[in-house]
Structures
1.
Amino acid sequence: MRIDIATLFPDMCEAVLGESIIGRARKNGVITVCCHNIRDYTLDKHRRVDDSPYGGGMGMVMQAEPIYRCYQAVAAEIGTKPHVIYLSPQGKPLRQRRCVELAKQEHLFLLCGHYEGVDERVLEEIVDEEISIGDYVLTGGELAALVLTDSIARLCDGVLASAECFEEESHYNGLLEYPQYTRPEVWKGKAVPEVLLSGHHANIRKWRREQEIERTLKKRPDMLADVQLDKNDKKFLATLIQEQDDN
Ligand code: SAM
């Protein structure tokens, strides 16, 4: 997988993507992430990449041509058209399911806007989809591109130790993950749940599944409308709902 990030602030992206798990995966060649400075593609002698909006109004708008030239340079380098995502507060909210699908793509090109945004014509010309990381407005698309890159990259083969690392986590199967504990066995008078010390794998699996259902009901009941539950899960959920109604 190769991800190209087009931005006016490549150092901001490199600072984050050079660290920790993603940084290691890049160093080991498991994934490729390239950060491109859109300013390097302007033809303006003062290296300008923005201008005031037609029709008036506050702020500046990123010009179409430098972005288009950056996109063309990447497409020429990889020898194909990448899947282009514009990070935007107007995009579809990012979900784990979409991250899983995007992790199967070979080439992603992420466009970060800044200031008031980007000239609409270049969006029409190159963008395949718009993704938002939430219903609020950031100063630029860089943080959103970093969130998207991290959430996709960790799903790629070889980035984490195994698929189990992410398959049991919150949102992967539509539920929130069970609670986790580590040493010491008792901390501030609070003991680790006994079942986790029992070594009985079937009981641990059952407890964890029930915890997933219970905490999803408690913290994010909206998620339950969309999740696949088997007969036992449904029975357990019905008991929890009954208990809630009784209290
Ligand atoms: N004028 C734009 C609007 O009202 O839709 C907002 C522009 S915003 C100040 C500047 C840039 O930040 C956007 O072009 C986009 O790339 C990025 N951005 C802001 N909020 C975002 C969000 N919630 N998700 C993804 N990108 C976002």
2.
Amino acid sequence: MNGTTGIQDGYGLYINGQWRPASGGATLESCNPATAERLATIADATKADVDEAAAAARAAFETWSRTPVADRSEALLDIADLVEANLDHLAAVESSDNGKPIRETSGADVPLSVDHFRYFAGCMRADEGSATMTDASTLSIILREPLGVIGQIVPWNFPLLMAAWKLAPALVAGNTVVFKPSSATSLSVLELARLIDGAGILPPGVLNVITGSGGHSGEYLKAADVDKLAFTGSTEVGRGIGLAAAEKIIPATLELGGKSASIFFDDADPDVAVNGVQMGILFNQGQVCSAGSRIFVQASALDRFMEAFSAAFTAVRVGDPLDPRTQMGAQVDERQLTRILDYVEIGKAEGAEVAVGGSRYTQGPLAKGAFMQPTLILGRNDMRIAREEIFGPVGVVIPFEDEDDVVAMANDSDYGLGGGVFTASLDRALRVATRVRTGRIWVNQYNVFPAGAPFGGYKDSGIGRETHKMVLDAYQQTKNILINIGSGPVGLPYGA
Ligand code: NAP
Ligand code: MG
């Protein structure tokens, strides 16, 4: 056991209701990015392990798919209760492994996960299917059936919450799952599996967790005998998942990257605007796929807003993720921090001006961790820092003149995941919201993720929507049964 967070020294693979090491014996280390200390070892699954997990899920599908929907729904409610009862533990594990502040894990990641399990438990009960008469003698029954074995891969930015988003709809619809967390942050999902296993909520094989690097276990899962792939992560890896699914003729849902436009008109409420820019690019250290990373500010208010934003960014409390007063923690690892710092240099070379921050912390206790200063850079929409995903607390501020100007720049992007409009005029907010080509746009708020509101991307940001009951379509097959209830033959006559 590891200090106060209750993390085990080592974790195995969870296959068919059993914990065991990887068959090759290999392990990886999971670290705390705030201290650079080793937290635990995780297993690096082999191809044989992943295939075994898929076979276990295939066998479990026979009974799980026939388990009454009321019981599957009840299982989700039990999981939600279990996560809720272990909120402090899971929040501490997540903050230690990922570096995100405990006020976020205990106030957002874990409670949102609880709510997602409850939401999908309810949705599934409310989906009764449908039947209709297509003509006087034909009854059409539309049946929804689970797809089978689902391979799910998630990134490191919201490890537990992404698990909830993926597991809840898949399991409640009657599928079985082989789940792969990121090797950088596997511990919260392993703890979730340990809790579910301990409580005996799911039959063996319904949920399998395989860990290891993306290049190993991720590739093996892509190639495994599964009936659907569900992926959240980078556009580059997502494209490979889509290609693998096309080869197998199975569906894939992809939640990918973003470079979202957060638009501030001169009539925006100053306090709401400051909160919006902070939630947009500092929440989760800016490691949010829908981060408001392009900050468009109306030129008439640029000086006023820059002053307010800069003061707010400088005042943010960056520090120990486990301290409840901390507002921004560590980036997920040194590699990610290096990537962010490289982008700041790229921006400078392109002629952008760093207005606030721009560096890591080199003094005091933060020097040993992957801590980045909240950063604002004055730039242009054609710069690489405005086109490529930085995935850190680095906002690129770009001035604009009017609605047409800002809508054109917002849409001049390969991505279309999130976005925000800040203004006192609801008409204007709705005009802009309907013109920006993106899957989610917030008005006078940013980066809130309620269950029941669909989330997903246009363009290179992905295919499919999550966090809404419509994702159940992506986890089910449709079967149509047509029944002749007339008193004689139907169709074209073949008699003499
Ligand atoms: P990533 O490299 O694409 O990794 C995502 C997941 O895929 C991880 O579990 C990773 O495993 C695995 N993986 C890596 N290479 C693989 C391969 N060749 N085959 C199969 N799986 C593989 O992304 P990331 O850099 O960790 O995460 C950040 C990205 O995710 C950003 O681009 C962000 O925008 C996106 N994101 C999108 C959403 C959304 O909802 N749209 C949400 C969160 C994040 P390892 O980590 O173990 O290598
Ligand atoms: Mg870690």
